[in-house]
Amino acid sequence: MTVAAKAVVELGPHPVKEQLPGVDYCVNSNPSWAEAMILGFQHYLVMLGTTVIIPTILVPYMGGGNVEKAQLMQTLLFVSGINTLLQTWFGTRMPVVIGGSLRFLIPSLYVTFAQRYLIYFNPRVRFLRTMRGIQGALMVASVLPMLLGFLGIWRIVVRSLSPLAAVPLIALVGFGLYEQGFPLLAECVEIGLPELIILVLFSHYIPSFWSSKRPIYDRFAVLLSVGVVWAYAALLTAAGAYRNRPLNTQLSCRVDRSGFVSGSSWISFPYPIQWGQPTLNVGEVFVMLAAAFVAMIESTGAFIAASRYGSATHIPSSVISRGIGWLGFGIFLDGLFGTGIGSTVSVENVGLLGLTRVGSRRVVQISAGFMLFFSVLGKFGAILASIPLPIVGALYCVLFALMSSAGLGLLQYCNLNSFRTKFILGFSFFMGLSVPRYFSDYVLTSGRGPVHTHSISTKWFLSSSHPQPLWQESLPCFST
Predict the structure, then answer these.
(1) How many whole angstroms separate alpha carbon 474 and alpha carbon 58?
(2) Region for residue 273 given its phi and psi (left: phi exceeds 0; alpha: psi -120 to 50; beta: otherwise)
(3) Could you give the 3-state DSSP secondary structure of residue 329?
(4) I need a labelling partner for 34 at 20 to 30 A (CA). Which of 57, 200, 280, 286 fits?
């Protein structure tokens, strides 16, 4: 670099930074134990949203009730804690939480609506049979990321990722989850909107007006805002504000309608093959393989974003490949224990790294300890799981946005005056949002996807607006 170029870089208002400035604790630095415990609990609280959403959606279609929902949530928490520890110890060693992935939801529902499970009229038997089918598909699908990761094949793919290619990859990981943000918040606006406003005030505005020696409001904004709005929602519930409201409104707004507290046991230890011997179907394996591949891509972007928010140098491709291998092992554990869903890097927890400016690995490991603790003590974990989902949607509006902005931050390495750069960025973002929209509109207009296999599982797309699953309507003995 010439002297003139160096002078331009030094005098420029926003010089290129390999490590993100402003991070209070990087990957290897740790806050005090007391602060780390609170921050770890905050990470646990954030990942709890997806952990609650998955059983809430999946279990009713499988034939289960509140007891099965609580058991599945506890199992998912337990395995997520194990996978998080394995990833932080042996994988990328980045401060990432490994949790349930909504990308596996459609494949799991595909298994749920398989014709061979419709012959079981007993809800409990149908739940067990369906879970065993999902387990077998997950265990076989986990071979793909393990092979690509541990054999170093994924390293070759990641090595070709330039900063320009990484920008849409990371950004679309967050932007692609927009349906889990404000739409989830709007299911109960009187709770979700105050949570969003208070979270933004605590994290960005109050610290600038009320300075203190220790950052409190911005670092613990999630805990403070959730505590305030959750208490407000409990007051509305106790005052009878939703007593005569429609059922969907009560399920979204009330704090006593989740069913996790009544269905969970005081102490339970999830163990392998707890639902019975897994079964296998080739078609279901291929569907689950597609979700595993998507989880690999999503996790790759999340690994890069976590290294950025942890103020680490650019993560090597070999480390990402190793992390993908351990992610595959985590999906295998999902199938072995029977979580009903596969794993990926928790996108919302990556956003929390940017919100708190704490990228410590120890904090995430402490959060894994909370996952294991509350998965065993079911009643205590179920109380926290009763947080209304609109509050979770408000958190997602901020945390998914921070995940996307981690990708946009890589634009500092790109020549934005180049027309080729402009084309690549614009085309990637446009197609990344336009192609999924095509599939969504196709399903809404025709009731099925572009590729129709005449499987009964396609009926799920038509049942999204129904108050209960289609199989409960078609088979009266399943009604509750």
Answers:
(1) 18
(2) left
(3) helix
(4) 200
In the beta sheet, which residues pair with residue 98?
Answer: 345
Helices (H) and strands (E) in the chain, counts: 22, 2
CA–CA separation, 378 vs 384, rounded Å? 10
Distance between CA atoms of residues 207 and 194, nearest Å: 19
Q: What are phi and psi of 140, to 5 degrees?
A: -75, -40
Task: Give the Å distances, CA to CA, from 440 to 102, 293, 298, 460.
Answer: 16, 20, 20, 13
Q: Do residues 100 and 335 lie in contact, with contact meaning Cβ atoms separated by under 8 Å?
A: no
- Phi and psi of 125, rounded to 5°? -65, -40
The residues with which 100 forms a beta bridge, in sequence order, are: 343
Query: For the segment 407-449, what is each residue's pLDDT rounded down to a tens digit?
Result: 998 898 888 889 999 999 999 889 888 887 777 776 667 656 6
pLDDT digits (tens, 9 = 90+) for 309-350: 998 888 999 999 999 999 999 999 999 999 999 999 999 999
Q: What's the Cα-to-Cα distance from 190 to each of 229, 242, 276, 330, 410, rounded to whole Å?
A: 10, 12, 43, 38, 37
Considering only 126-135, 145-154, 331-340, 425-434, which range has the smallest mean pLDDT? 425-434
SS3 content of the chain, % helix, strand, coil (to 5): 70, 0, 30
Task: Identify the burial level of 161 via C-beta atoms within 10 angstroms of its C-beta, where 0-12 means exposed, 13-18 middle and 19 or more buried.
Answer: middle
Residue 192, C-beta contacts closer than 8 angstroms, at least 6 positions apart: 184, 185, 186, 390, 391, 393, 394
Compute the average pLDDT of residues 338-363.
94
d(CA 233, CA 192): 10
Cα–Cα separations (whole angstroms), residue 228 to 40, 202, 314, 348: 19, 12, 38, 20
Eight-class DSSP state of 204: I
* DSSP alpha helix (H) spans, 274-316: 282-309
122/386 Cα distance (integer angstroms): 28
